[in-house]
Request: fold
Amino acid sequence: MPRVATKESILTHARELFRAGGADRITMRAVAKRVGVTPMAIYRHFDNWDELLEAVIERGHATFLTYLQRALAEPTPAARLARAGQEYLNFALEHPRDYAAMFTHPRVSQAMRGKTPHWRDFATFRFLVDRLRECGDAGLLDLGDPEAAALSTWAQVHGLVSLYVAGRLHLGERDFRALYARSVTDLFRGFGWRGGSPPAATVRHR
Reply:
């Protein structure tokens, strides 16, 4: 009896190919072979390669958000902001292909152009805005615009992580985590942090 491909099984195998070799490893034929169906069966659920890749990337964003949401277990605005920064790094180091595809892969960016929400609308970016806003409301930061501060924060941590993931910094993970923590600490000092040691002053390992 022929196998029936479900949308979830297709996405699961597509993500396995993605984790093994990135976006270029995902083809309709390769996914169909792993699922055990014909390539035409894939098209019953995904109209084309771009749509399948979009689903893979959306699943990566969902995983990313689960990391950030761990920060909500912390008891104070400062601790939640610090934990969010640490979980950002944990996600990038534990899911480097997802991270690269979501933010840096040129082929993915071209395929997703006009199909995904504006970066300001991603739940992960809104999460950072909320953490900064609550620190501002608590008097820890003097923020005129939490979105602008979130963009500056994201630009700094993304730049560091991208350089590290690309092998440009020539540092081991422990040394990179320490550099990341110092960089975030300096950033929030620049924002006028008024709550003692700035967020990310302490490096937290898994």
Q: What stands out?
A: The chain is about 65% helix and 0% strand.
